[in-house]
Every structure is written in C-alpha cells, then in structure tokens.
Amino acid sequence: MEKLRSIPANRRADLLIFLVLALFPLAGSAFYTQLLTKYMVFLILAWSLDLLWGYAGLMNLGHAVLFGLGGYAMALCLSAQQGVPDFMARGGVTQMPLWLKILSNPAAAVLAGILIPALLAWLLGIFLFRSRVGGVFFAVITLALAQVFNLFIQSQSVWTGGFNGIGGLPGLSLSGAPLGLGQSYYFVFLVVVLVYMFCVALTRSRFGMILRGVRENETRLEFLGYKKASFKAAAFAVSGALAGLAGVLYVPVNGMIAPNDVGMEFSTAVVVWLAIGGRGSLTGAAVGALLVNVLGNALSEQFGAFWQLLLGAVMIVTVLFMPRGIVGTLMHRSEGREKRGEAQERG
Amino acid sequence: MKRKLCALAACVAMLPCLLTGCGNGKAPAGQKPIKIGLLYSLSGVTSVSEKQLYNGTKLAIDQINQSGGIRGRQIETVFADYASDPAKAADKARKLILDDKVTAIVGTCSSSARQAVKPVVEQYQSLLIYPQSYEGQEHSKNIVYVGCIPNQQAEIFVNWLLKNTGKKFFLIGCDFIYPHVENTLAKQYLAAGGGSVVGEEYVPYGSTDFSSVLNKIKTSNPDIIYSELTGDSNVAFYKQYGAYGLKATIASLTTNETVLKAIGTQASKGSYICVDYFKNVQNDLNKKFVQTYAATYKDGTEPSYAVMGGYNAGLFLGEALKKANDPDSTQQVLAALKGLKIDSPSGEISIDASNNHAALYCRIGQVGDNGEISVIYQSEKTIAPKP
Predict the structure, then answer these.
(1) Which long-range contacts (CB under 8 A, 24 or more apart) does A136-140 make?
(2) CATH code matching the domain that covers B24-148+285-360, chosen among 3.40.50.2300, 3.90.1310.10, 3.40.50.40, 3.10.180.10
(3) Is the ipTM of this structure higher than 0.90?
(4) CA-based nearest residue in chain A for residue B42
C-alpha cells in the first residue's frame, strides 16, 4: 500500500484507465470494442502532442500532418498489395512506380510511416527554432502547413485518392494472418502501453527535464549552456515519430484515410483534446482524447443533428472554468493545498 | 485531492460504459417493429444535400407506417449522423448493423462515404440503399443504387445540349471523383457528338472564389458551362456568374430546387439542369407528393431530385419488406429488391436485377423567369442503368 502511495496520483489514474481499457472487450459489444480500438490509437496521437505542447510548450496546430504522413504511407502500402491500386489506375497509372513497390512491403511502410514524419518535424524544427520562431508564430506556421498538406493531398488525386481518400483497406494482420476484433484490440492496447512507458521514461529523463526548462525559462537554459534549438527540434522529431506511428496504426484499424484526417480540422481536434484534458501530465492527454471522442459519439447518438453544438458547449465551459484542463486543474489545486498545508505547519 | 483525481480517472474509465448504455426511442407495444438504419449527415459540409435525402426517406417510411406498416408491423428507424466524415460513416454503419441489428441501412451521400461503408456492409452481409446520383462504375451485391448514373443523365444531356444550344463546352467541377469521372465521360460524348471542349477547371471542394475561373471562361468563349459544382461552391458560382455577365449558359448535373432558392432567380434564369426528377413533373402522384411535402417540412427545402432519391429509397425498401417472407432477413429483402417495380412521383421505376441500379426517367429542365424549373424534356420510358 505504501508503495502504491509513493506513485504520483496521476500515474495511479493512468493505471486505472489502462485497467478499464484492458477489461473492456470482455463486457463491451463488438462495435464499441472496434470504436475503442480507434480511440486507443488517438491516445498515442494525444501523447505525441503532449510531449511537444505540454512539456516543451510548443503548440503544433498542424499535428495531423505528421499523423497523416504515417497514415498515407500505410494506406498506400495496403492498397498496393494487389498491384496498381484502383484510384491510380483511374488516373492512368499502369505500372507500379519503384517507391510504391518498396512501400508495398509492410515493414518498409511502418518504417517510412514513422521516419518520414520524424524527419519532416526535425527539419522544420531546425529551420524554425534556429531562426528563433516560437510561440504564436510557431502555431501559425504549423497551421499553414496543415492547410498546405491537405490541399496537396487533395490535388494529387492520382497518387493519394484526392478528396475521396484511400478506402476499403484490410484490417490488422500479423505475418499474413488477419487479426480478429479482440486480437486487434489487444494488439493496439499493447502498443499503447509501450508508447505510454516510453513517454513516461522520456519525460522523467534528463531530456524531459531540459524540455520543461525550455518551456519555463529559455534564457536561463541558454545561460546554462544548452542549445535550446537542437533540443526543441529533437522533441519535435520524437513527437513526429509517435504521431506517425499513430497514423500507421489508424489506417488498418479504421479501414480508410481521407484528407479530413490530415488537415486543419483534425489538427485542431487534437489540440482540443489536450486543452480539455490538460497538458504536461500525459494523464490529461489520455483523459481528453477519451472524453471528447466517447462523449462525441454518445451525444451524436442521443441528440441527432445538434450534437456538435453540445460538444462545443462542453468545450467552452471546460476552457473557461478550467483553463489548465480537467486533470491540470485538479493537479494544480492539490499542489496549492499541499503548499498551504506545509506553510501552516511551519507557521 | 489525489482521491479526486482517482475519482476523475474512474469517471473517465466509466466512459466506455456510457458507450454501451445508449438506447434509441422505443417503438409502441404490440408486434416487434422492423428496424431500419438511416445514415445521413445532418451536420457538416454535405448536410444541405443530406437533409433533403433524409426528409425524403423519413417521409416515405412515415407514410408506410401510417398506412398500416408491413403486415401490421411498424418500421422503426434508427438514425445515425456521420457529420459528413466518411470514416465516421463506416463506424456508424457498423454500429447500426452490429448493435442495432437493423435489417437494412438507407443513406450516405458522397461517393467517399459510400465507398467507406461498402466494405462494412459487404463484411457483415448487410444491405445499403444508396439514394444519391453518382458517377457509376461500381457494383456491390450488398448495395442497391437508386439515384441516376451517367448513362441515364449526362449522356442524354450532352447530346441534347449539342442539338439545342451550342457546340463549345467549358467543363467545371469541384475537385473530387464525381466531377472528374463525369467530365471524362462528357468529353467522350462530345467527341462522338461533334462538340468541343474549350476549357476544364476544378476548384477545391467548398471554394467560393471564381474570379480567375470566370476570366478563363470569358477568354475561351464557350456556349455552355457544363458544371458539377456542389454545395457552397455551386451557389457562389451561379451568383458570381450572374454578376459577371457572360453569354454562355450554365448546364448543371447537380443543381436542384432547394439550391436554386439560395442562388436566386436573377443568376439562374435560363440555365439548364438534367436529373431524374423535378418538382414540376406532371402526374397525380407527384401533385399529392408536393403538397404533402410542403405540409410536412417547413425547413426551407423543396421537393428535388435529392428528396426524391431519399423518398424512392424508402419506397423501394417498403415494397421489398412487404414482398419478403421474413422482413427481418436482410438476404430476403435484398432478393426482393431485385427487379422490384414501384409507382413513384417520378414515374414507374424499377431495380435492375443484374446490377442493383434503378431504371429511371431522364428529365431536362430550364429555370424560368419566375425561378421555377419547367420540364422541357422527358425520356419516353425509363432508361436502363449501365453502371
């Protein structure tokens, strides 16, 4: 029991969430198991943004671009399993280009889906942070990036399926054998747990401390001799790799990917999950991603046409009264109380 | 407080239960109702079209229920809103099939949404009735397509325009599959009929600035602007075209009565539209339908080909449920749909058993000075679908 108490409250909360996720398929229906598989993929995406925004203080309004790169790499791979995909054939493509042949190997697609977004994030980071772009300017540039990427995907319809996206893709399979619903669920669950452990380790490491330093006081960090641009670019790259991984998993789980999933709208959605759940604790990201998606689904079933308005109202109320997000506010209050308690003891 | 955080985590952890605890409206006591899923977006970018499809389907099913239902059993509709997001459409279709156990689903509007739902209905051997006109080139044994396809619409339209208006065409559409396929076909029809293409432009979906496109149209001097613009882009194009003052006439495959209200008469008069149904189709059934529609819906929508697509989908489904021995069996309903004939306000139409598409009339209308569409051409009989 003592040992359990020594674990921070939010980590215990994480454990509880994982416990429920682990048990859900035993009680839940097939449809909701499938839906929750998708939401678990969103957990990875939420954490990847939390590393960047919550820990390093860099709000990325184009996070779905990194997710989309991973997603499209996987979608192209899955659609090219039986030769030239339909949407390419419609555009007049008769032979598989070399890059698609390489990408049609699932292992290559997974690697590309993780490395390409990481590389893009790192390069962007180097350019932006060396030239001291930060704060709201970083947000605006990434927002523009999301819009550009969305238009690019839509305009290159021969290679990307355009507005309609790439659909009808097979589900998860391991060495050729397709996984069932429960198997897919637990496979994704396993990946989510691994990513979580990685994120916790990263934020506790020296690297994580430096990132928090970047967020709190950049100048002091520079005086201490750290090259903050390199650290920020590295954080961006790690975040990109995880977002790409989320995209790679999303495509077989979802069966399709479309420009909707890579543009401004979805990027903003990820930011909203974090704004509602709370930043810089990983727990907040998980709570936000699950809460918003599950609530959105439940509201759309109960209230028909105006469910998005209700969801919007919930968001506004949260941001107005809990600007640190739900988990952030709870943690902040508790810290305040502990400090007051200590002060009284001393007094 | 740590307790508080744990309590919160517990709440979040309970969320999945929220997922499972939702029920839909219960049907009145008596015989078990037949469950049908309605999968439409009443929110999002395609909601203007889908509201009309939804109204049509809902009206058809309500009328069937009022006149005694299916051998005494009522049809219970389970509605799902997919917010114009294809991925969500697939999710909701799965929910309707697995959790609500519906006999069939009526719905989806854009080709991307239909294509997202296709693998789902195929996987679970379910049935989707697709109410919208589309570009053809698809055949799923689990989908019945009741909207018109190019050989029932564009082919006739292009040849009619060549004969009656002019030879030089400017092709314009939003940048997604449907306009690309339609325009590719239009080029084939034009080549065969002796017409020419003087320009071809695609704008991003939802784009509303047409100044550069209008300039290109002006310099290429076409007789006809052949358009598959949809949604906001369509309305904006008509308005800017009206303000710009071009002599070419717009010929559209996608404009309808509801959209015309948003465009206004000034910008649209004289333009041509080709679809399978107009509000002003002359027959007794349609007269009654238009009256009922106006009495039922006061939401700004007008009876249009979109409303009729949704309505026909409901009528076909109702007849098939009556014909099937066991209306809860999707396979029997699917079998009953093949070759099925119905009397609709758009005429006597049927489902082609060989390809699951509907045989429909082709009609061309022109917008008059009063903003009403008058039917200036109607095919003698229904045209067999060739997807």
Answers:
(1) A138/A58, A138/A59, A138/A60, A139/A59, A139/A60, A139/A61, A140/A61
(2) 3.40.50.2300
(3) no
(4) A305
